[in-house]
UniProtKB/TrEMBL annotation:
Its main location: cytoplasm. It is found in: Cytoplasm. It comes from Candidatus Protofrankia datiscae. The keyword Cell division applies. It holds the Pfam family Phage_integrase. One of its GO terms (biological process) is cell division. This is Tyrosine recombinase XerC. The active site is at residues 166, 190, 260, 263, 286, 295. CDD domains: INT_XerDC_C.
Amino acid sequence: MAGDPAVVVERFLDHLAGERGLARNSVLAYRRDLRRYLEHLSLRGVRSLADVDESEVAEFAATLREGAGEHPPLAASSVARMLVSVRSLHRFAAREGEVTSDVSRPVRPPTPPRRLPRALTVDQVVAVLRAASTSAAGGPGGDPAEGSRQLRAVALLELLYGTGARISEAVGLDVDDLDLDAASVRLLGKGGRARVVPLGRYAGEALAAYLVRARPVLASRRASPAVFLSRRGTRLSRQSAWTVLRTAAVAAGVEGVSPHVLRHSFATHLLDGGADVRVVQELLGHASVSTTQIYTLVTVDRLREVYATSHPRALGTSRPAQG
């Protein structure tokens, strides 16, 4: 049958894998989403995509939000993802001539609520960094390799918090990207966009100590341009960098720490200190200032909290008027 939904879906998935070169996991995600859509159309007795109109797609979106049968209601983010898959299918069907027009185009995915980024307090960050630093201090006569890895931990964590670097940017650093004399580092961000970020004193000193006392030990087995090296002398992986941070956070007794939380903390603390949002945008490597502005919401919430606990009229107490 022309426009058979199941047949068109298979052709669409082949197009994603073969012509657009999507990764296997991405294609599987499309398949899962569209299987739910095919189930919906079957229950409605729809046998051809040519019989689907805008109201049918909107009805599908409604069932996702409200739940139906054995399917519980979905969050706005999940509904949005499924509708992206459905709209891509209908756009493909229209382009291939299976249907006369793309009826899904007017149906807009719901906008998921913006989640405020979680940031640590300054004291929490200092506790994590101090835990790594205390470990790195070690004791006399220790294992040189272990001491090198501990110095690497301090340098890595000071860099992450001191520059707001993404974990991929940190482990992707080469020695030539560092300019300790100018106290700066060149980070290669998303889309291949490079930016130069200042290095604070703590990060600069930690990197200098690591480069002089630790990196040569780790690099003894093979040559590598990478700043952060594994015990085998290869570039440190993202997973290993995560482990470094997790170990320090556990030692400090601070929960909910991740490389991205350190990045959020970097941005939030800058704004709390009076930095301009566009400066923070440049430091983070955001293409649009709107991405950075979500951090201003965090600081506004913090201002409200301080106000609510500090201002006499907010507390409900005030001095009596003087007569």
